[in-house]
Amino acid sequence: MRNWVGRSVLAASAAAVVSLAVIPVVLQGQAGRGAAPAGPRVPRTADGKPNMNGIWQTFGGANWNLEDHGASAGPFFQEGAIGAIPAGQSVVEGGGDIPYTAAALAKRNENARNRLTADPEVKCYMPGIPRANYMPYPFQIVQSPQNILFAYEYASANRVVNMGKPTEAPVDSWMGWSNGKWEGDTLVVDVTGLNGNAWLDRAGNYTTDSTHVVERFNLTDADHMNYEATIEDAKLYTKPWKIQLTLYKHMEKNFQLLEFKCVEFAEEMLYGHLRKRYN
């Protein structure tokens, strides 16, 4: 298994991330210079921004369901406990439910009933934002002043956050179009241009081509990051709503992203019905 970030994603994104080689440093003894952050000291890059370089992952049941859910049997009884669904607490702000309109809630429930064939994850489609950040796979952040690369292990998905003058998406896509800025020590990413095909989890919570996401990444210390995403879509929700979770930095020796090119695992589901059958 090889490190596909170095050979594939970074190579493909080279033109967009020319200046990725930022030398990370930890600023120390800054109290006298007025530059120390309000919370615990965090590692910083040479330009003084919080250093988010590394491989991150969240843990919990958000990819199963963003809302509260109890443990339940999996879709295939043959898998027994191995395929069961673990319980999880809501990551929706306040521990509540997503504020759907009545029609959108009915569609979400229909999605849930058909999730084995309708969930884009089953088919190895791109996960979209914010789902890519809380799937049960790690992702890597490579940071520079001009652009920030997010490389995801799942399906080799990736995106580049433009840190310069905001630009518009040339076309809608699964991963959308990301413009970023710093608000103090918080990285704020405005995501537009989503194609509306992605789901938010395996429970059928979904998006449209009007979905707008604003993400906030904030280091709480060198190895932990607070992640928030505010989601708005007048087609689906009665008001904007927010999720919050913690990202953990992988500290294992020689840890790296591996390949999970899942198309080959989904070929039978996607194309099996096209196979010529003989009597």
Structure description:
The protein has 279 residues and is α+β, with helices and mostly antiparallel strands. It has a single domain, classed as Lipocalin (Beta Barrel). The protein is built from 4 helices and 11 strands. The strands form 2 sheets. Strands 6-5-4-3-11-10-9-8-7 form a 9-stranded antiparallel beta sheet, with helices on one face. A hairpin with a 2-residue loop joins strand 9 and strand 10.
Order of helices and strands: HEEEHHEEEEEEEEH
First-to-last CA distance: 41 Å
Strand order of the largest sheet: 6-5-4-3-11-10-9-8-7
- The CATH C-level name is Mainly Beta
* CATH topological fold name: Lipocalin
Gyration radius over CA: 20 Å
- On the 0 to 100 scale, the average pLDDT is 87
The biggest sheet, with number of strands, parallel, antiparallel or mixed sense and barrel status, is: 9 strands, antiparallel
How many helices? The count is 4
Q: Uncertain segments of ≥5 residues (pLDDT<50)? A: 1-38
Helix content, binned percent? 10-25%
Shape: globular
Secondary-structure-based class equals alpha+beta
Task: Count the beta strands.
Answer: 11
Proportion of residues in extended strands? 15-25%
How many structurally independent domains?
A: 1
Which superfamily, in CATH terms, is the homologous superfamily?
Answer: Calycin beta-barrel core domain
Question: What would you say the CATH architecture is?
Answer: Beta Barrel
